[in-house]
Structures are given as structure tokens and as C-alpha cells.
Amino acid sequence: MCLTIPAKVISVEDSGDNLPLKRITIRDSRGERSITALFEDIRAGDWVLYASDMAVEKISEDDAREILELLEPRSHIDISRLDSVFLEILKACHTRELRREEIIRLLHASEGVEMEALLSEANTIRQARLRDFFCIHGIIEFSSHCVRNCLYCGLRRDSNDIQRYRMRPDEIVNSVYDAVNRRGYKLIVLQSGDDFYYTDDMLCDIIRKIKEKCRVFIFMSVGERSRTSYEKMKDAGANGVLFRFETSNKAIYNSIHPGQSYDERIALLLEMKKLGYFIATGFLIGLPGQTVEDIADDIITIKSLGANMVTVGPFIPSDVTPLALHPAGSAAMTLKVTAISRLLTPKAKIPVTTALETIENEAGRKLGLSSGANALMFNLTPEKYRGDYMIYPNKYHGKEEFWEKYGLYKEELSYKMLEKKMSEAFEE
Ligand code: SF4
Question: Which residue in 58, 172, 238, 271 is a FRET match for 277, CA 20 to 30 A apart?
Fold first, then answer.
């Protein structure tokens, strides 16, 4: 489903075609325009949600203001106050690929007008390329078991004192069914630790059963498995993978992923791409030893992998890991990376990560969505398991029901819109 910016109705007139439609004039942050309302009961002063020049739903003023609070774009920036080199880089992103040193300069954007200009530019590009639609997707974390030992993760194999769970295959299928057929989601990520209790056959069976019952895009986030495993899941109906490389600095990668290889991870991502998966990938900000230059290389790696979805979040320390005392990644750097990712991949899906929301709370959601991000990923893991998927502590949970209530297009049209967007992402 998607969210869109509401508008106030300024005036109403009959369509004149003996149809139960009205022509209405609305006003939003981009001015006034005339659109068609799909319902008769409407008058000046009402608020509506609209899309593609159609008002599709009336909405209360209070709720409209709450949505505006979340989705309204940043205010205009006085670019005359910008350093000329910085300004040239922002202009250049419209006509050519940015060079590594230019990305580094943007990452060094100072607080104040430079940072505001960068985030605002990304937001403008998001609006120009993707209009005022913000996708809402769901994630179901179906197993907190993991055979790996990543130093930053609370689910690592050596975390002995945590409560772990595995959802039964029928529970997973039923949770997706509920999310899609009752709540209106059209894209669900199925996530777990690297848990080989779930064999390829089990995962494929789950995917097939979901696809029999639901019109939904399924993204698998089940870690490092063989190319053959991913081929089988693709054949079973999986559409995408969520598989982060975490850092492109091999020395850092090796130091935090005992027994794993950066080259193998990237090779697997490339194989997934060849298999036709929609690729969601990204990295962590604030890892030990990570420099701004490393982050620039991470952004370049995302671009070179042809990522269709960019997922970047700040590192958050967990008490049960060896990095418990390492400081959390910076929200400001996360926003800069979100913005630069938008400049480099204008049509990519960029969700606001839960990690950003966790360190910034509700403000993180708004900051992300006004800095180039265009999607939210809601946690749909059943309540009884949710608290036990503790990659890091105090995970943020927002007002999902409110946003679900105003998510537009929960029927077939929404699936078709997403399908179109996904195929466009492949064309880039
Ligand atoms: S980051 Fe993923 S693979 Fe690594 S320990 Fe955590 S759940 Fe396992």
C-alpha cells in the first residue's frame, strides 16, 4: 500500500456528465489544482487523500495534519549561502555520475545550510521522479536462530542468554495472509538469522503456499545460502532478496564477520542479480574503524551492484555483543547517506530503516522521508515473537495502525502499481 500527501478542498463543482463525480479544486504544498473526486459527499473545507488526479478518500482534518507532519517536504533552502564547490556537486548529480571525491565532499556536509541543501535536493529528486507516493511494506521476522557470529548483532550464535524462537511454516504463511488479505500489504520481507533448520524445500514450500493464497511480492532475507538455494526460491516465486554487504572495507568486514568472506558475499549478491531478483542491499554506518571514505565506497558499491532498494542504517550497540561499548552510528550521517543514495539512484526504493527510527524515534521517520527515502517497512512479526528478534535493543515500533488506515490502494491496483515500479527499477 502507499501513503500520499493530503490536500484541502478549496471548491467543488459537478462534473456535468450525470456521473456521481465532482470536480474539485485542492490546495497542497505545490499550490492549487483541479482534480476529480470519486465520491459525491464533499464540500469546500474538507480534506482528501488523492493520487493520479483522483481524490480517493475523505480524511479528517486532524488526521490530515498528522500525515502532513510526517510527509511534508523540507522548506526552501537559500542556496546563495552555499560554498560554490558544494553547489556545483549538487547541480552535477542531475547530469552525470558523481565522482568518489565529490561523494566524500557531500558526506562532509556541515550542519546547517549544507546539510539542509543536500537533504532538500534529495527530497526534490524523490518528488520529481517518484511523485508523492510513499510505499508501506511489511517485514516478518520468522526465526531468531543464527549460525553466524557477527560481532555487532544480538542474535549472534554466541549470544547464549537470549530467548530464541522459530515460527512454524503454517504460522509464517498465515501471518503473510493476514498482512496481505486483511491489512493490504503488497510486499513482505521474510527475515531470519542464518537458520538452516529451514531447508530449501521448507522455504520453497512456504513461498509457494503464500503465492497460492496472496497477490504479494516476497523478499527473502535469510542470509548466506548457496546459489542453488536462491535459484530454487526464485523458481518457487520469491521476487527479491534483502541481503546487505554491511561494509565494502574488506578489513572491517573480516574483523566483524568471523568465518565469512566479503568476496563470497558480493559474488552471491551478483548471482542473485543474475537470477532476476530485485536486489535490496546496503550497509551499516558507525562500524569500528569505518571512515567517511569507506562510506563513500559503500555508496559506490550499492550503485555498482545495481541495487533496486537501498537499505542503510546506523549501527546500534547491543549489550550481548563484543561491540557493546562501541558508540552508535550517527543519525546525521545516515541522513546524508540516504540523500546521496537518492542522488545516485533516483528511482530506487529507499526505506527509512528501523535503526534510524530507533535512535531518533518518530522524528527519524519524518527526517528519513524528507531526505530522499520513499518507503516505510513495518514490523508485522506476531506480537508473541516480536520482542525476541533483538539484533539491537529497544527497537522502534511506530503507529502502524494509523498509517495502515490511510494507506491507499489496498486492492489489485496497488499490486499493479508496485509491479510497474519494480519493473521500472530494473530498467534503470
Ligand atoms: S547479522 Fe544476521 S547473520 Fe549476522 S549474527 Fe545477526 S542474524 Fe546472524
Answer: 172
Shared domain check, 324 and 368 = yes
Minimum-distance ligand 1 atom for the alpha carbon of 156: 5
Indicate if 9 and 105 belong to the same structural domain.
Answer: no
Instruction: For the chain, 428 residues long, give each residue's pLDDT as a single digit of tens.
Output: 777 888 899 998 876 666 667 888 998 877 888 888 877 788 899 999 887 778 888 889 998 888 888 877 777 677 778 899 999 999 998 889 999 999 999 999 999 899 999 999 998 888 888 777 788 899 999 999 999 999 999 999 999 989 999 999 999 999 999 999 999 899 999 999 999 999 999 999 999 999 999 999 999 999 999 999 999 999 999 999 999 999 999 999 999 999 999 999 999 999 999 999 999 999 999 999 999 999 999 999 999 999 999 999 999 999 999 999 999 999 999 999 999 999 999 989 999 998 888 888 778 888 998 899 999 999 999 999 999 999 988 888 777 777 777 776 666 767 777 777 777 765 55
Cβ(223) to ligand 1 under 6 A? yes
For residue 115, give its domain range: 79-128
Q: Specify whether 161 is located in the same domain as 14.
A: no
Top mutation candidate among 156, 160, 311 for ligand 1, by most atoms within 8 Å of CB: 156
- Say if residues 60 and 47 touch (Cβ distance below 8 Å): yes
242 lines ligand 1 (CB under 6 A): no
Write down how long the chain is: 428
User: Which residue out of 194, 257, 283, 284 has the highest number of ligand 1 atoms within 8 Å of its CB and is therefore the one to mutate?
Assistant: 194
Residues 66 and 155 in one domain: no
Q: Which residues contact 415 (CB under 8 A, 6 or more apart)?
A: 186, 215, 216
Q: Whose CA is nearest to atom 5 of ligand 1?
A: 156
Is the shortest distance between the CB of 218 and ligand 1 below 6 Å?
no
CATH number, domain with residue 204: 3.20.20.70
Give the global pTM.
0.91
Indicate if 261 and 319 belong to the same structural domain.
yes
